[in-house]
Write a structure and sequence with these properties.
It is a single chain. By secondary structure, this protein is α+β, with helices and mostly antiparallel strands. It has a single domain (about 1-255), classed as 4-Layer Sandwich (Deoxyribonuclease I, Chain A). Helix content is about 25%, strand content about 25%. The protein contains 5 helices and 14 strands. The chain has helices at about 10-25, 45-50, 115-135, 160, 170-180; strands at about 1-5, 30-35, 55, 65-70, 75-80, 90-95, 100-105, 140-145, 185, 200, 210-215, 215-220, 230-235, 250-255. It has a 6-stranded mixed sheet. A 6-stranded mixed sheet has the order 5-6-7-8-12-9, with no helix packed on it. Helix 3 (about 115-135) packs parallel to helix 5. The chain binds one DNA strand through loops. One of its GO terms (biological process) is DNA repair. InterPro entries: AP_endonuc_1, AP_endonuclease_F1_BS, AP_endonuclease_F1_CS, Endo/exonu/phosph_ase_sf, Endo/exonuclease/phosphatase, ExoIII-like. Keywords: Hydrolase, Magnesium, Manganese, Metal-binding. Its EC number is 3.1.11.2. This is Exodeoxyribonuclease III.
DNA sequence: ATGGCGCTTAATAAGCGA
């Protein structure tokens, strides 16, 4: 079973890239973030023609998440229970007995800002919910744009980024709290190239200079860790014309 | 170096992302 996540930064603009990528890679499930589309405008028929079904929770301009799958999607949930939020950041569904949770974590803007506080409270609510979710669904995968670079090796210039949003200690502590639930960063289960990142700023030729961060992740629950065979970052879509600033992360599990 | 680029809504600029 091939699982993937990709922040497309507007599904309207990136639909051709997404369809090409699905055709070339044939994942069983692809989690999307920053679709930036109201549900009425979601390109369901185009995806169905490509052999996929989808569930989605979007809004105009900002945020928006979707799960695209070859298999039937069941028990669909949007948002975090008991965490009222206008921002469409979470969607979950079960397919082939695996609970797939797709997240677009808040950016946080700057350390100490209101948006940063929102980010930390959002992570607290997420982890409290997932603790229960893992009881109901021991086979669980948490995929998405976490907007956290977990360690210094996930940052192109740790000194320049030190203390900044996306790498600050309270954010990294939240990432470790997720690991305390038994979730593991599938990327680090395997030997990886140095300087592996999933996002590069559009400016300053950051991609060409590999000035990136690894902030998109696939976390797997304890029972899925032993059956994970690989996790890779696919840099190819970042080289296309008008790319998303993020690139897909892919993991395979044998179930 | 507080800019840079790209997307969105809106409207001929401004907010936001990371």
């Amino acid at each position: 079973m091939k699982l993937a996540t990709w922040n497309v930064n507007s599904l309207k603009v990136r639909l051709p890239h997404a369809l090409d990528w699905l055709e070339a890679n044939q994942p069983d499930v692809l989690c999307l973030q920053e679709t930036k589309q109201e549900d009425s405008k979601f390109p369901l028929s185009e995806l169905q023609q490509a052999g996929y079904q989808a569930v989605f929770s979007g809004q105009r301009t900002y945020n928006g998440v979707a799960i695209i799958s070859k298999a039937v999607l069941e028990d669909v949930m949007c948002g975090i229970p008991d965490f009222p939020d206008e921002q469409r950041r979470v969607i979950a569904a079960t397919l082939n007995g695996v609970r797939v949770v797709c997240i677009y974590a808040p950016n946080g803007q700057s350390v100490g800002s209101e948006k940063y506080q929102y980010k930390l409270s959002w992570y607290l609510a997420l982890r409290k919910w997932l603790k229960n979710e893992l009881v109901c669904y021991p086979r669980l995968a948490l995929l998405g744009d976490f907007n956290i670079a977990p360690e210094d090796r996930d940052v192109h210039d740790p000194k320049a980024w030190e203390g900044n949003v996306l790498v600050s200690e309270p954010e990294r502590a939240e990432f470790r709290e997720l690991e305390q639930l038994g979730l593991r960063d599938s990327f680090r289960l395997f030997e990886q190239p140095e300087k592996s990142y999933s996002w590069w700023d559009y400016r300053m030729m950051a991609f060409r200079r590999n000035m990136g961060l690894r902030i998109d992740h696939i976390l797997l629950s304890e029972v899925l860790i032993p059956v994970c065979t690989d996790c890779t970052i696919d840099r190819a879509p970042r080289k296309l014309e008008r790319p998303s600033d993020h690139t897909p992360v892919v993991a395979n599990i044998v179930i």
